[in-house]
Amino acid sequence: MAVVTTQTLRMVFRTEGGTSFTISLDNPRNNLTAQEIEAVMDLIIAKNVFLTPGGALASKRDIQIVDRTTNDLYDPS
After folding, report:
1. pLDDT 10s digits, 13-30
2. How many angstroms separate the CA atoms of 42 and 46, rounded?
3. How far apart are CA 64 and CA 10, in angstroms?
């Protein structure tokens, strides 16, 4: 049995069609700043890296670092 904590960086964009598009990255660097993330998001938008069903990425919508703790209560023998 183990308790495991993980982090996920979620960068949420608004598309030209008004829908949301999320890029999730596991285990972001501990000292990552909002300014660094915003700069990367701006670059992704400027370079038109992703084309989604809602169209190209148009703007930044949200940035989240999600902490998740899992408590594994059963380990088969």
Report:
1. 999 999 999 999 999 999
2. 6
3. 5
The residues pairing with 57 across neighbouring beta strands, listed in sequence order, are 15
Report pLDDT digits (tens) over 27-64: 999 999 999 999 999 999 999 999 899 999 999 999 99
Whether this prediction's pTM lies above 0.70 is answered by yes
Beta bridge partners, 14, equal 20, 59
| Separation of alpha carbons 77 and 60, rounded Å | 47
Joined together, the tokens standing for residue 23 give 């890029």
Strand partners, 46: none
Q: Locate the domains of the chain by residue range.
A: 2-72
Quote the Cα angle for 20-17-60, to 5°. Answer: 45
